[in-house]
Every structure is written in structure tokens, then in C-alpha cells.
Predict the structure of SDR family oxidoreductase.
Amino acid sequence: MSLYNPYSLSGKVILITGASSGIGKETAIECSKMGASLIITGRDEERLNSTYLQLVGEGHKVIVADLASEDSLSALIARITKVDGVVLCAGKGMSAPVQYSTPDKFKDVFSINFFSPVELIRRLYKNKVLQKRASVVFVSSIGGVRKITYGNMIYGTSKAAFSSMMKYSAKEFAVRGIRVNSVNPGMVCTKMIDAGTFTEEQREADIQKYPLKRYGRPEDIAYSVIFLLSDASSWITGLELIIDGGVTI
């Protein structure tokens, strides 16, 4: 006799972008533990295969794709027949004060953080690959949405646009029973924050601003994504779920 679990993803096909590392990788692994069949994608084949080897269960698929490339995006969509859930996890950071935030830098970040995932979800919906009563989860940020910090304008505005797109999608996709939500993390311990932008002293000082006195872990975000993908959240859409250790309070 199987135990009742409203958070189960059994029988669901879930597409996860940016699954080669960080939050995307951990989300893929945890979703597989909950019974989902995964389609994982990213640009780095070696790292994607590393994620694949850590997935639980069978029937998972790896598709190497650069979502910023029109040909690559089209090839990805052509290989997917249906999905019951999508997690838009691919992202890129950049630090620059306003006076050095040039158009080329905006184009670079927005290409990965906004235009590519928006075009992906648009086509999945238009082509009816995204099934009725499916769930889409945008992995956004508190940056640019709930928290404004020096030097974070390019990244923050890309995430603000991303969160706005989530709400428009939630409004329009509801006609097919498709839910669209976002998770908005604070600082999470991934390679993105280990790029040498902060000294160890600066990082420790920043951690002290968090009431729970730590940065998030990728699994903290993955568990919330699972909730939004599952039937346990079937009456939730258009939500920005803040997961930030209390820093915005």
C-alpha cells in the first residue's frame, strides 16, 4: 500500500533549464526523488551528464541546448512532446554600477535571464506542449523585486522583468488550468556567488543581515519548487514565493 503524498510528482514530466549546476541541478535531483520523469537541459554536456547520473529512477532525458541560440532553442522544443511542469532555472549574474551599465551588458544578461526563458515558455504554451493543468515555476530573485543593492541593477532589472512576465503568464495561461508562479531566493550558496565579487569578510558581514544567520542552500529552493510543481499547490498561481532567510523583513 503506497502512502498518500500530495507533494508527489509521480507521473509528471518536468523540464528543467539550467540543470547543470546550482539550484537547477539540485531541483532536478530532488524532483526525481519525488517520482518525476526529468528532461534536463543546459549548455555544458559534461555537467549535465553529472546531474543525470545523480537522478533517481528511470526514463530521464538529457538535452544539451543553448537557449540563447534560435537553432538550439528550436531543436530543444522539437524533441519534447509534452511536459506537465517547467522550471526556468538558467541564469547569469553581473555586477556593475549604473554609470557602467552599458547596453551590451544589458543584452548579455537579459538574453539569458529574460528573453531566452520567455521565448521557451511562449513556444511550449503556443504549441500545446505544456499540458493542461501543468505548472510553471520561474526561478527569480529578491534582487530587483524586493531588494535593491548597489551595483546590481542589470541583474535586478532582468529579474524584475522576469517576475512581471510570470504574472502575465499566470493570468493568460489560467484558461487552460496552467499555473505559473515564481520562487524568489535571497543569496544561495552556488557557484554564482563564488565568483570573487565579495571578500570573505564582506560575505560574513552580509550573512549577519539574515535573521536565520546563513545563506540559502540549493535544496531550500528545490523543496519550494517541488511544492509549486505538485498538486498540493493546485490553487496557487501568480505567486512570488520569497525564500530569503528573512532578509527582506
The chain has one domain: 13-192+218-242. The helical segments are 22-33, 45-53, 70-78, 103-126, 153-173, 200-207, 218-229. The chain is about 40% helix and 15% strand. The chain has a mean pLDDT of 92.
